[in-house]
Amino acid sequence: MTDEQLHITPRLGRILMSEEAIYGLILVSGMIVVSGTNSGTALNAFTTVAVTVAVFFAAHVYAGTLGRLAATDGHAGLGASLRASLHQSGGMLLASVAPLIVLLLGATRVIDDTTAMWTALIVDTVILGILGWIAVARWSTHWLPRILSALLTAGFGGILIALKAVIHH
Question: Per the count of CB atoms within 10 A, which of 41, 110, 116, 161 is most buried?
Answer without folding.
Answer: 116
